[in-house]
Fold each of these.
Amino acid sequence: MKPTYIEHIGIAVNSIEEAKTYFESVLGLECYSVEEVADQKVKTAFFMIGQTKIELLEATSPESPVAKFIEKRGQGIHHLAFAVENTDEALQNAESKGITLIDKQSRKGAEGLTIGFLHPKSTFGVLTEFCSK
Amino acid sequence: MKPTYIEHIGIAVNSIEEAKTYFESVLGLECYSVEEVADQKVKTAFFMIGQTKIELLEATSPESPVAKFIEKRGQGIHHLAFAVENTDEALQNAESKGITLIDKQSRKGAEGLTIGFLHPKSTFGVLTEFCSK
């Protein structure tokens, strides 16, 4: 059940266009994909650094969870995603240890991954995602 | 100047003792070091996952930057650290591209690394650290 690496770090931004410039020109990272995730009402942009992706998240609607996050806390790190072998098993294991789940069952996320979220109230304020291929 | 991987993710918590239980028993990670960084007024605990460390941060004084962070935003992800070859060069490069620095020059951080921080106001709300060995 142990996650093997940090799959990605999600960062909520007002504008992917503006943030992209920083990640590209200051950090020298390359954006290899821009994708819309309709059911989450977000546009995403991905950069690779070592084993880990940085996923920029821009709301496509004021009802997007990302829009609400930014309204409340401002731009910044939104969630942390751990690579696991089996997302459903990892969710069940967490629940069996008293962790509150956002997703009782896995679902499809960006990049075709199988994902599921834990609630930050039981993970020390860190919105936590499990994902598997 | 390009960072090569995510060196660590700093997470501000009220109590390392409590948070450790979650990272160990739910995520199955092993805490390999607990260290106090006196000049930052924090106690730290480290876990390794793939290339990346998770660094828990607990304030040892109400004046600690971590205590102020938690007071304002609650527990959660505090900063993101990129491994670079030379921290001073990375800081200078960022400044030359208009980024506001917290550290004009590198300094010593936890685990003997040479570190320096960028100000989150110019990095889309992400308190960003460069570190080198």
Amino acid sequence: MPDFDSVLHPDFLIPMVPERQILKAHSVALRDGRIAAILPREDARLMMAVEHIDLPDCALMPGLINAHCHASMSLFRGYADDLPLASWLQQYIWPSETQFISPDFIRDGSELAIADLILGGTTTLIDQYFFPEMTAEAVDRSGLRALLTFPVIDVETAWARDAESCINNGLALRDRYRDHDRIDVGFGPHSTYMVSEQTLSRVAVLADELDAPIQIHLHETREEVLGSVERTGMRPIDHLEQLGLLGPRTQCVHMTALGDQDIETIATQGAHVVHCPKSNLKLGSGICPAQRLLDQGINVALGTDGAASNNRLNMLNELQTASLLGKTAHGDPRALDAWTTLEMATLGGARAMGQQDRLGSIEVGKDADMIALDLSGVHHQPHYNLASSIVYANSGSEVAWSWIAGKAVVRSGQLCTLDLAELRERAAAWSAKITDFRATLEHSKHAN
Amino acid sequence: MPDFDSVLHPDFLIPMVPERQILKAHSVALRDGRIAAILPREDARLMMAVEHIDLPDCALMPGLINAHCHASMSLFRGYADDLPLASWLQQYIWPSETQFISPDFIRDGSELAIADLILGGTTTLIDQYFFPEMTAEAVDRSGLRALLTFPVIDVETAWARDAESCINNGLALRDRYRDHDRIDVGFGPHSTYMVSEQTLSRVAVLADELDAPIQIHLHETREEVLGSVERTGMRPIDHLEQLGLLGPRTQCVHMTALGDQDIETIATQGAHVVHCPKSNLKLGSGICPAQRLLDQGINVALGTDGAASNNRLNMLNELQTASLLGKTAHGDPRALDAWTTLEMATLGGARAMGQQDRLGSIEVGKDADMIALDLSGVHHQPHYNLASSIVYANSGSEVAWSWIAGKAVVRSGQLCTLDLAELRERAAAWSAKITDFRATLEHSKHAN
């Protein structure tokens, strides 16, 4: 009877707790989906295990937590770029969503995204999009871990007639996955401008009763903040606080255009911020002052946003951009240093989900969500500081192995749970249909 | 007797001239290092050639021109990150350069960089560093194309005693490579703060006589601009203009902290700007207003800078960051669109070198410098707009083939001209020595 399911022997181990440590000659043993032991290499070699896995040239670290995404929008990747937010949404994204969003679209889009996400180091996804039932099934099949925050908006969509239906559908989904080890379900009220006060208040009450996480787009642009002040007399964050929706279960996504008073409000309420630097850059939304938030003791997680506004879903690439941009935004090259963004992408995400006891670091007893990054490429030579190499030199293609809940979903660079050729074919079929539709959109625009 | 050396059959052809076109079912034929024909696929299949190369899922485009680098500083990649510019230079980079810069260091560092550069899509490099003789040899061996701008500074280095020696060594190098097809040599006066007026004037006269390109770090930071005003009463660019060093052969690198008057000066003089977005972000230097420069008709090229301040030497990654950052810097998501940064990285670089008649596009008669990007990865699906996919979705690992002067230097993802295992070993040996030295630096700092 083996002691462990598998024992991993990386050249370097980056546990994240204790912080800023890189261990050599250490191994990690897994059992029943958990991290069962961290051992000196020579002891680990003697253990009885179903599988010993050598990871030469690899750094083993906690899997990355992508704290904001709209996975199935991957089918809109590259569909409408280099456009201002308003035309992007109104002329392209919204009409196409109305035309195409369906269970099939969500299944295919979610699987395409998940392949990309896992190969880029994500082991936990926080998602928010229509038909989360379909995304949940894709997550289940692929072996990914996810928190699905079901959309709550007042307008009718293919998924739900109104806010009440959103909530009913979402809570039914939450019930269905109550006992699932890797899937959680929370509330995803879109924003203070897309959801009525009444609905937001109802979400606040329900989320409180159910002790469920909430994710909301907040302060994405300066215009959103100004619009809220004109409409309600309040900044979005104050509005959210007044409605009882701001607290330690709330994940505030984007958070650009922040004054000192806003930062104080987040800190006082213990809410979490999800920083999406590439999406913000690409849409010209603004820059989240992540270092200032951290300096006030606020937890900051990291997300890619959807592929329609990034267009990568690669967390290694995202943390590189976060560090680089953070220095210039903060006016100090020490800001968002390599270790800080690694923490945002691991423990930061775990805290935002309220799962810091299970996820975000390699510690005995935690869930076995880990990635092994192959650092043998010439672009990683020489090795002075591994954290720096992972953050500043990564291409995002370094993921050699990935384990989620102890199961290897990537082995030697190959994704084990999804068929890439099939995903490509399905994406091509969708893009043909969507391209035709876009031609009719442009035709009718010119005809007007 | 075959008609062509090789005929390439990509799924997509992006010639860059005519602009913004993507051709399907077209092939490119090479002969004697030049582009000899661009043909419909069916005709091309019938041609006699030494080699027909199928490039399924690939986009064939001009090779990328990395217009600013210090190649051999790759041996300092990750050596000193997350530091302010002054400590980075004074406490780490300069003492280590003094200790280690030697012909061997430059050979090993140049080769490590060149492997990384070529695998990331660079086919032409503009470099500036000590012992350019050694870099020239590495460039020659590797098959890369390069403009080496030899350093001109007044202080003594391992390479040259003073500015006069720099110029003598550099001009000897220029003589040696006079007839070399792929190597050019120009002047690299470091900056207006590291080189005396007298030396700068001498460079101006010589470069004019020899009709040679000049590359200089200019307006890298606001502090540089303020320092120049205090020292000389002039902004660096005005100082350069007064010394006769600003003109159509001048490549101005970095160019942050620009006022309208500076932009007018560059435009009037016909000088070129080299934008290095990632280095500027990482050192917190500022942001070059690339879109504003383009709007004034100024040619803008793109560079990675050295690996000590980036830390990638990947031009695909650099153009992604350029586009994303450009939108936010310009306050408009239409700024630096995908086609614009592709042009900066190809034709922009060619114009900066004064070689737009030879490089930067796939046109009959131009030098056969091309890359084939494999777009089959899930992160590139679906295909709506290939330019957008290449710019926004690339990982930088897409280079499947690379031809320089008609010779395949990368075949099916494998670099043909350098031994990666050997490069890794040499990098490891250097990093061991440099790490020991760094420990003595820190020891002596603590002892003080």
